Amino acid sequence: MEAVRVLVLDVDTQDTTRSMDTHSIRFLSPGLAAEYAASGQLLYSEAYLERIDEDRMWCVGAESAEGLQSFAWLHEGIAEKEMNEGYHSATATEIRLSADAAFVFNVFTTPESRGLGLMPAILGHAATKLRRTRGVRWLVTTTEITNDAARAGFLKSGFREVGQYFRYGIGKQAWGSYPKPEGPIRGFA
């Protein structure tokens, strides 16, 4: 069983601009993302590298002189099961989103850079750019209900919790209990 929080950021109602004096924040090109992955800095991202050049998949990162310090992957549209697995692939859950929403997944900050505000900075940068260039109005994410650090980071980034769901899986069979879809969330599968 997995218990998961669902969080949403309304880009239009949040202050998504945060300046960083010590880090450069930008969308990573496919080549740069591959370099960071090869050097071990873009963790847990191998499956996504193949898709970074798609029109709806991005990786945004915070860089310092020491290299990549924080990153987040975003996908415009449906949050595919593979992007929302949690700890067990049997309980992966697809989240159907409105056309003006992007799903945030695989967010990571190096231990030595935690507490510097990098997560709000990279998510704010992504929200601002995607709103301006793609018309994205919402960012949606999920986190394990026991991951208080991730929840706190998303709340500091302007997200609000809109519900929780519980997903059970045995082999290929999975079922769940989901919140009522609201805002950019159209349903769960």
From TrEMBL:
Keyword RNA-binding listed: no
Regions that span the bilayer: none
Molecular functions (GO terms): acyltransferase activity, transferring groups other than amino-acyl groups
Alphabetic keyword roster: Transferase
Source domain of life: Bacteria
InterPro entries reported for this sequence: Acyl_CoA_acyltransferase, GNAT_dom
Domain N-acetyltransferase positions: 15-181
SUPFAM superfamilies linked to this entry: Acyl-CoA N-acyltransferases (Nat)
Name by which UniProt lists this protein: Acetyltransferase (GNAT) family protein
Species of origin: Botrimarina mediterranea
